[in-house]
Structures are given as structure tokens and as C-alpha cells.
Amino acid sequence: MDNVSYCPIDYEFTYLDSPDFYTFALHAVALIAIPIYILVGYMIIYKTPQSMKTVKRSLLIFHFWTCFVDILFSILVCPFAVAPLYAGYPLGVLKEFGIGVANQAILSMASTESMMVSILGLYENRYFIFKRNKKRWALLRFPWYAFNYFLAVAAYLPVYFMVPDQTNARIFILEHLPCLTPEILSGPMFIVALDVNLMLRSASLVSTFICIEGLTFFFLVKRSLNQYGTQLSKKTVEMQNRFSKAIILQLIVPSLYLAAPFTYLWYSGRFKYFNQKFTNLSFIFISTHGLFGSLFMLYIQVAYREVVIKFFVNTLKSFGINIERQYPQKKSSIFQSRMSINVY
């Protein structure tokens, strides 16, 4: 790697660049998010209707991984990164237990990849339900899941075993980012890898493979539902189609939420662009993915939404606010719900 500075000439550091702002924002997010995580977990375990029992376990696994990744980023690890270098240091709880920086970095990245596998599990679950000959796939399910979770870890093993000598880490960082403030440099700087492209290629390869698997299951589910359509009632087919659409939206919308931060981090690493504000904000956005996904789950899944609305209706009634709910005669959309509020 050439000894070239990545610092823009006119870059100005502000509070948004500082580790103090970063940790404050992450902890504030966690304070808001954790009660929501617990609420959604309770909903999945205790309020999942009979019609959704077959997907309950997959939803719970998916919810666990999305929440765990958020908690890793906001409390346990709190990775303060200095992109475009693959360097930085943790500010979270795990450092107090003597867990190495490299181990924390691999844990964070492998957990994010495992979250993608849990998303894949929702599609696989629908495929298994609609598959006619379940015996063969039932034997392959556990090895298939084990293989994908192994890939989630293996994607970053090359980086783990190629962690460079840290003797001159600070000198290396200052050669490329001489503009870093004393506040940022006061932390125990650690270089996870000298070649960022190695990590990007390895992670992209595994992520692409998982996405291809997800698309394959999506089309297999669609085909199976069309085949079963002749054997099921029209009402059942419509219900399954609505549920499948809700699952797809529940996965796609939060994933799109992550597009901006991941695109920036890729751009920073690929084109050696430095902006500590954007880096901090990107990781903060990533740490809110589970919160956003949990709130969206409460909204998109009608059964959970009804429980939440009923709770608020009863709470408002205790304060003298009566709410009259009006439903459309025919529900053609999974989003439809009308409410009028009257205060007495």
C-alpha cells in the first residue's frame, strides 16, 4: 500500500467526528431499541396466531439475529472505525472483558452475515411448508443450515488469519490519515487488515451466494403455491399470498434501509475516501437496523399490529379518549386499517 494521505485538504473535524458523539448516539439508540426488541420477541412467542405457527421459529431466529447485531454494534463492541483504512478500536463492553480487537471485529462481521442466513431461513421455511415430498429435504435441512452459518464465519477467516503486526499500527495510520485528531488517536488503534479489498471480495462472494439461494427459494415457493392453488380453497391461497407478501416486505424494506450506509462504506474502502462523520453515521444507521425492522414487523404483520393497536386503544380509553375503529368491508391490502379518534 502506498504511503499516501487520504485526508481531504479542506476537511474540518466537528463533534460528529468524535468518539464521544459516536458512543452517545449508539447508547441512545440501544436505550430506545431494547424495549422494542423485547416487545417484538414477546409478540412472536406469545401472540403468533395459529395460521402463522409454521413460520414462528424462523421469525424468532430472524428477530434474534437482527437484534443481536444491533446490540453488538451499539453496546457490546461499538466499533469506532476510521475508513477507508480497515482500522479503529472498540468502545463497547466486550473490551472490558479482555476480548481481542480482532475477535470482536470477526464477531461483528460474522454476526451480520449470520443475520443474512436467518433471512434466508424465512424463505426456506416457506419452501419446506409447500414442498410435497418433505422427507428428502427434511434430511438435508440441518446440514444446509450448518453449511450456511459456517460460510457466515468462513467469509472473514482469511482476514482473521492475516491480521498484521500491530507494532507500527499508529505510524501506519498516521501516514495515511495524518489529519486525525488527538481525541481519535488517543484510543488503542488496531489495524484489522492492510488489504481492505480482500475483506470486500470475501464478504461479497458469500453474500452473493446467500442472495442467490434466497432468490431460488423465492421462485420455488412461488411455483409450489401455484401448484397447490388447484388443491386449496381460494381463501387459503389468498391468505398465503398475503402472508408471503408481508414476509417479503418485512425483509426487503429494512434491507433497503441499510443500502445507504453499506454503499458509503464500500465506496470509502474502494476509492479511499475519508469522512469520519459519514463513517460514524453509517455505523449508527447500521445499529438501528433491528429497531427499524422490529417496528416494521409490528406494522406489516396484521396479528401483531392488532395487539399493539388494542393496547393503545385501551390505554387511551383509561384517559378518557375513545377511539372508534372503522375497517374496510373488503381487505384487499395487508396495510388497510382506518381509525377515527373522538375525545369525550
Automatic annotation (TrEMBL):
The keyword Membrane applies. Signal peptide: none annotated. The chain crosses the membrane at residues 21-46, 58-82, 102-123, 144-163, 198-221, 242-266, 278-300. It holds the Pfam family 7TM_GPCR_Srh. The keyword Ribonucleoprotein does not apply. Keywords: Membrane, Receptor, Transmembrane, Transmembrane helix. This is Serpentine Receptor, class H. It comes from Caenorhabditis elegans.
